[in-house]
Amino acid sequence: MNAPTSLAHVRPEIAPRPVPEALIAALQARFGAQCSTAMAVREQHGRDESSYTEVPPPAAVVFAEGTQDVADALKLASQHEVPVIPFGAGSSLEGHLLAVQGGISIDVSRMNRVLSVNADDLTVTVQPGVTRKQLNEEIKSTGLFFPIDPGADASIGGMTATRASGTNAVRYGTMRENVLALEVVTASGEVVRTGTRAKKSSAGYDLTRLFVGSEGTLGVVTEVTLRIYPLPEAVSAAICSFPSIEAAVRTTIETIQLGVPIARVELIDVNTVRMVNAYSKLSLREEPMLLMEFHGSPAGVKEQAETVQEIASGHGGNAFEWASTPEERTRLWTARHNSFFAAIASRPGCRAISTDTCVPISRLADCLLDSVAEVDASGIPYFLVGHVGDGNFHFGYLIDPDDPAEREKAEQLNHALVARAIALEGTCTGEHGVGLHKMGFLVDEAGAGAIDLMRTIKRALDPKNIMNPGKIFSLG
Amino acid sequence: MNAPTSLAHVRPEIAPRPVPEALIAALQARFGAQCSTAMAVREQHGRDESSYTEVPPPAAVVFAEGTQDVADALKLASQHEVPVIPFGAGSSLEGHLLAVQGGISIDVSRMNRVLSVNADDLTVTVQPGVTRKQLNEEIKSTGLFFPIDPGADASIGGMTATRASGTNAVRYGTMRENVLALEVVTASGEVVRTGTRAKKSSAGYDLTRLFVGSEGTLGVVTEVTLRIYPLPEAVSAAICSFPSIEAAVRTTIETIQLGVPIARVELIDVNTVRMVNAYSKLSLREEPMLLMEFHGSPAGVKEQAETVQEIASGHGGNAFEWASTPEERTRLWTARHNSFFAAIASRPGCRAISTDTCVPISRLADCLLDSVAEVDASGIPYFLVGHVGDGNFHFGYLIDPDDPAEREKAEQLNHALVARAIALEGTCTGEHGVGLHKMGFLVDEAGAGAIDLMRTIKRALDPKNIMNPGKIFSLG
User: Fold this and answer.
1) Domain that holds residue B222
2) Which of B109, B130, B158 is the last residue of a domain?
3) Which residues are in the FAD-binding PCMH-type domain (chains A, B) (predicted)?
4) Positions in chain B whose pLDDT score sits under 50
């Protein structure tokens, strides 16, 4: 393990820029009641689900109700060179929304209309404030669904900004693969469209993918065209216990390698199974567990399931349980759904520091085993779940928020984990994004050359550095 | 049909910049026999498969044998502010390789090693000069394959640069989805890595996707990490005739909409079927035809095939023919494989001007029917084939290369087709790229705002405008 060179970046650099009264007055004149400077509103918009608490809130919040509102707010902010932070559902995890350089928040949650559903083309166009659950509710009658599930009921705009994914990504991809086109407002307040509804294109630079994952640092997403999918004819779920993490991971690798189009494959480690048993009064076998889901035709699902059961048996997998009805599936997946709450409940008053490293799956067992040994040795309680089909997993370090030494220890564990993942050709963040918390890690991962390219792009597209400044990388 | 506003861009603007003798001398000193100024070599590197003939060749060709060669050549070119055009297999179609602003060619075809195969992770890392057929030959023994098939035996570097796809994209995606990571040499000669071997990541700007499809205008690709796939356990192919293009397209839409994971679905129009019958002495039913391929387990393939057969029957599909062995499949697919040659042979001495518009599949029948009517009325012979599962299709206008009026007429047909595709929410290029030929179309499609973003990025990453200048968009 290397020395934790990156811990300096874990505490954000707070350097608010002045927000002139004239800007607030201009926003109030333009937006009336859509602009708030009430402290409660500002505070709500000055935090996310990260553990940062020390950053002052934005000076004002504009509740945009359409693209023109966003454009006008950005033009005013640009005139005054004041930072702008887009806000969707507030569910980001790495400090993305914090006003480290001051400025205003543009809340797009009122831009929450599904603008069009094209069932023949399997596409939908939505405003950025639509949440993923709302979207699935609204398109249910078409027999189609949007598969990306990051856990939280995040907004589509926020999921676009962080390149989100989740449990279904092993089959359906991430936001990278599922955003077809965007409308964005640039730093200067121009409205630009990227991409088309065509499924593929070689027409110039891939601006769509440049904005996906840019965490609000290049512009504000005001419309998103997404791929959607036919609801599978049949769905089958299973849980299976394994004698070791390695056996579970080896089963996953062989499943992927055989081309089984598994829709979900989640790992829960033995420690977390114990927490879930205690929390949900279950008696799951206290061994590492895979939770799986198969989508397809009835015959196809059956075939996939048999194939995986055979692979699992070869690795000592046992206590297979199957479910086909929605109710049975929900029951089987209880362990996964409750793992976060079970973990939190296992240590009253704790907060979880979550990681989301992702490695090539051949390296997954090594990465997990070494990291589990390290956290076990540290004495910090934790949970461990993973989207193992993608090589992506989450440790949650359960710390006493009032104990700086524990927090520091957890950050060091996280750092060691990330260093290991990078050494194994992986990434510091599979799905949460960089925000503030991983800026140091990104330097370790991407290297100076790539960071310089990112800086050059940022400076070119946002010369006044007003779009969510101080996130992803420093401008040096 | 709008007036063809974009035809001005069809003829390239040729404005060679001076190539100082000092640069040639420096290249010769550094590269010795790896640098050629022989006219035959320069001419071979000054053209591609487009119909442009009037552009003078590059002043010199450097045969790079490794990343350092590319970096050194770029540093020298940058010092002298001389354009650099990367060259792979020379199979691009839109004038991508032409030295419209003079400069030197960097040929990467000697960088043709498969650097690593990671079967567990389903990834491979290759040098840019590896061709797709070579790659599949080299990994055959692993039971894995690389599915992207643009027709030509293109280089992986070139396929990356044009965001190529082809017949398998409906199932396996395009280069956009299948490039995981890159090594690139930037315009200033820096070597930068983008991405990792992790299957997904939220770590900063998506530099990988920015370089994919950038047609050599932002840097030279020197290493590519790709996703590869398990060879399907079973493959089944079929052809089926339909009473109309609309019936064939409707069959395709329903197949996709039902979630059938069809691996290939190609349309051949009746006109092209006739050409193939004449060329290959076949007696295929003279009706529009779909050619299909299914990948999966034996039972899965059978089920997919039955589902599609049922859908096709509902649309008057008949004369279904099936094939499971490689030999039978090759025979069935003869019509598709020979369509280009059959078309060329149908008019001795002709050249084909190919299009590759792509629309949402719900718009495909409209787009095709109107375009067929237009070309029929024009009297210009043509062929029509399409990757219809993606809404992507190719008209080939068979023109007499010595008849400027015919060429002009074909360009006008192409322009009308692109205008129609854009109006139907599609793209001017599904897979060939913009090059010189579609610069005007890209403006029509993307709009001034998006083009301005592309220009801003280009200026920032290549301030001397030396990377394949004059392609994709003008710097205005």
Assistant:
1) 114-230
2) B109
3) 54-231
4) 1-9
